[in-house]
């Protein structure tokens, strides 16, 4: 049956049809929907893990047990999971194991723009890359076959455009598979040096076999145009841009297998044309491979560069000299940068931190928007969990000068992901540091996924809920307190007192995300224009529901959720 599907939805369908039994992932845009969609199939066990490393280890364990397995993550998540990945390349698999890594060219929702093909090359694990939803489904099924035939995990590289665009998918029935027999084999699965040395030999031999497979694999295909002026070698989403921009003006070698890449196939294709253009997003992986195998009539990064997404207009302009006319509007539309939502519980906390002039070590989550104007409250944001570890290092370097004027902020899901070990470090090494856990009762940054603190699992069923207060105390933090960030005075007092203390402390800023369906809101506030003196104190909160018109504050009742922090901020009683 034909169906229009998002790339991530089609990927999930491929997992289902391939007989995948175990799925463990950590949500990360643009990969999140793969796991959310596959969880809708009752035949598949699916879960959110605390982080990507745990997810990959779970998937590998399931594979060794004899079940086809999967774990999904975004590109920076693969960094977290790199430890098990590189060793899983040595152990290989029992049943097939597939890993999705979704790169974010253009950094639509990420802190960097890394090219995950480097991980595939370095770990010596095969990587394949679909270019539309139909290929997402088919490539996943083929990935399981490659995994089992070559005794290896297989990475499927996605991108924001492929993950979140729609195209036609042919759906088929599920292939039900029995568990493969598990046999105790220490030489294969116990990676101590004596056994690992032998497995490294296997990895190198496997790479040679995979390279031979790439020569004739259906993943790679040549599309010859009789009117071609030159040849193009491309992959992934860039293939779609090439076809739309160039049409029959170029012959195309589409590489669906991006590690290892074929040799003779590329050489033979390149020999047909005087000019070969490599169109790939981010780093010059294909270009470097071509030069390494003696193909030198190529151009690539010298034309397109290493930064951001490629698109049809760029290709047409760079290769054909055709400048696409942009559509202009008569009216100037103002920029609308992302902001924390009206009623966001993090706003009150960040306002207090800004007011107190505190140095803030930030973390990854929607609360990173606290760095934006007018709050400007965050000094650093590096990676998941780095706020706590970074604060410890900052305070150890600067001593008492910093200890009483700096905090770390981290969300509840991020704390469970990789913040706990940083807090252990603070307790263990006697660091006088204050950590604020922004507990909004959900994983907000990727679209309201459950996490170990919420009391529900991926399917919404009841699950064990981690008690943050007890956990922090068990780690060794004696000073642990909870505040409601809607109460500014209470929050400000707590921050002052914990910063003044000469020992480590944790403040849990607890209030559910304003967008959660079960959260009941108060009636919206309004401004009494007779009392408003245009002091703009309410504007310092950065709430999108508040604006100034005719020198008077105005509250948009369709956005306001009645949190009340603007009322507390107004010294003239104009907000009521």
What is the topology?
Blueprint: E1 2-6, H1 7-17, E2 22-25, H2 32-38, E3 45-48, H3 52-65, E4 69-74, H4 75-80, H5 82-91, E5 97-103, H6 117-123, E6 127-128, H7 133-150, E7 154-159, H8 160-164, E8 166-170, H9 186-189, H10 193-216, E9 220-223, E10 230-234, H11 236-246, E11 250-255, E12 257-259, H12 264-270, E13 276-279, H13 285-292, E14 298-299, H14 301-304, H15 312-320, H16 345-356, E15 359-362, E16 380-381, H17 386-398, H18 400-403, E17 406-411, H19 412-428, E18 434-439, H20 468-475, E19 479-483, H21 488-500, E20 505-510, E21 546-549, E22 552-555, H22 565-569
Parallel strand pairs: 2-3, 2-4, 4-5, 5-7, 6-7, 10-11, 10-13, 13-14, 15-16, 15-17, 17-18, 18-20, 19-20
Antiparallel strand pairs: 1-8, 6-12, 9-11, 21-22
């Amino acid at each position: 049956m034909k169906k229009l599907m998002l790339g991530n939805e089609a990927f999930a369908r491929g997992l289902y049809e391939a007989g995948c039994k175990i799925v463990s992932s950590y949500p990360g845009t643009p990969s999140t929907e793969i796991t959310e969609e596959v969880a809708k199939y009752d035949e598949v066990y699916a879960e959110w893990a605390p982080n990507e490393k745990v997810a990959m280890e779970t998937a590998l364990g399931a594979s060794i047990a004899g079940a086809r397995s999967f774990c999904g993550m975004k590109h920076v998540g693969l960094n977290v999971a790199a430890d098990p990945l590189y060793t899983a390349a040595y152990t290989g698999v029992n049943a097939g194991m597939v890993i999705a890594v979704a790169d974010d060219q253009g950094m639509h929702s990420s802190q960097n723009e890394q090219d995950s093909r480097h991980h595939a090359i370095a770990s010596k694990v095969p990587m394949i890359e679909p270019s539309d939803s139909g290929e997402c489904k088919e490539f996943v099924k083929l990935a399981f076959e490659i995994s089992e035939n070559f005794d290896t995990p297989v990475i499927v590289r996605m991108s924001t455009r492929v993950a979140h665009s729609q195209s036609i998918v042919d759906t088929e029935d599920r292939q039900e598979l029995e568990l493969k027999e598990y046999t105790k084999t220490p030489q294969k699965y116990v990676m101590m040096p004596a056994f690992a040395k032998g497995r490294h030999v296997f990895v190198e031999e496997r790479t040679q076999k995979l390279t031979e497979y790439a020569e004739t694999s259906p993943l790679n295909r040549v599309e010859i145009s009789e009117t071609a002026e030159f040849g193009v070698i491309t992959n992934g989403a860039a293939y779609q841009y090439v076809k739309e921009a160039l049409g029959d003006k170029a012959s195309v070698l589409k590489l669906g297998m991006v590690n290892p890449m074929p040799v003779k196939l590329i050489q033979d294709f390149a020999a047909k044309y005087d000019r070969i253009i490599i169109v790939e997003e981010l780093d010059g992986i294909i270009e470097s491979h071509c030069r390494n195998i003696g193909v030198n009539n190529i151009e690539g990064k010298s034309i397109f560069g290493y930064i951001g997404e490629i698109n049809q207009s760029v290709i047409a302009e760079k290769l054909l000299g055709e400048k696409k006319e942009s559509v202009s509007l008569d009216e100037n539309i103002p920029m609308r940068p992302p902001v924390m939502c009206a009623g966001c519980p993090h706003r009150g906390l960040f306002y207090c931190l800004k007011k107190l002039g505190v140095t803030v070590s930030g973390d990854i989550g929607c609360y990173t928007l606290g760095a934006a104007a007018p709050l400007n409250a965050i000094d650093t944001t590096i990676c998941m969990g780095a706020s706590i570890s970074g604060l410890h290092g900052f305070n150890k370097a600067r001593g008492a000068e910093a200890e009483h004027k700096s905090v770390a902020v981290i969300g509840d899901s991020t704390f469970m992901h990789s913040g706990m070990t940083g807090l252990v470090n603070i307790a263990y090494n006697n660091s006088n540091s204050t950590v604020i856990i922004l507990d909004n009762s959900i994983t907000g940054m990727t679209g309201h996924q459950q996490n170990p603190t919420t009391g529900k699992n991926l399917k919404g069923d009841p699950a064990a809920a981690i008690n943050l207060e007890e956990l922090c105390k068990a780690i060794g933090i004696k000073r642990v307190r909870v505040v409601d960030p809607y109460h500014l005075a209470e929050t400000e007092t707590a921050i002052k007192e914990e910063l003044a203390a000469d020992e480590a402390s944790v403040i849990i800023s607890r209030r559910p995300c304003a967008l959660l369906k079960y959260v009941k809101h108060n009636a919206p506030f309004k401004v009494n224009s007779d009392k408003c003196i245009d002091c703009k104190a309410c504007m310092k909160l950065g709430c999108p529901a508040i604006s100034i018109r005719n020198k008077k504050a105005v509250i948009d009742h369709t956005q306001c959720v009645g949190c009340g922090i603007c009322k507390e901020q107004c010294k003239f009683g104009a907000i009521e």
